[in-house]
Amino acid sequence: MCGYGWGNGWGSGWGWGGAVMSVLMVLLVVAMVVAVIFAVRYLSGSSVHRRGGAPAPEGMRAEDRLADRFARGEIDEDEFRRRMTLLREHR
């Protein structure tokens, strides 16, 4: 037709290689987008979602976490006392 390359028609003789390269390019772009999203979430520290209030420090004792939940009104006094007794029994 125009005299460019060896093949005629769409793809100019690339065959299945062109289709495979196209699929690999799409997968590469998707992988890069996912990597950027995970990197942003990791660096911003937003991967840990908790209900209500500020996230509790990882080193916080169980009794302190229970007292914190009681202070926020998540549990009532009876529940607080019952759980505190259980925690102290199983040390």
Automatic annotation (TrEMBL):
InterPro entries registered for this protein in UniProt: SHOCT (IPR018649)
Membrane spanning residue stretches: 20-43
Keywords, sorted A to Z: Membrane, Transmembrane, Transmembrane helix
Highest taxon in the source lineage: Bacteria
Pfam families (alphabetical): SHOCT
Keyword Transmembrane helix on entry: yes
SHOCT domain: residues covered: 62-84
Protein name: Putative membrane protein
Organism: Mycolicibacterium chubuense (strain NBB4)
Lineage of the species this protein comes from: Bacteria, Bacillati, Actinomycetota, Actinomycetes, Mycobacteriales
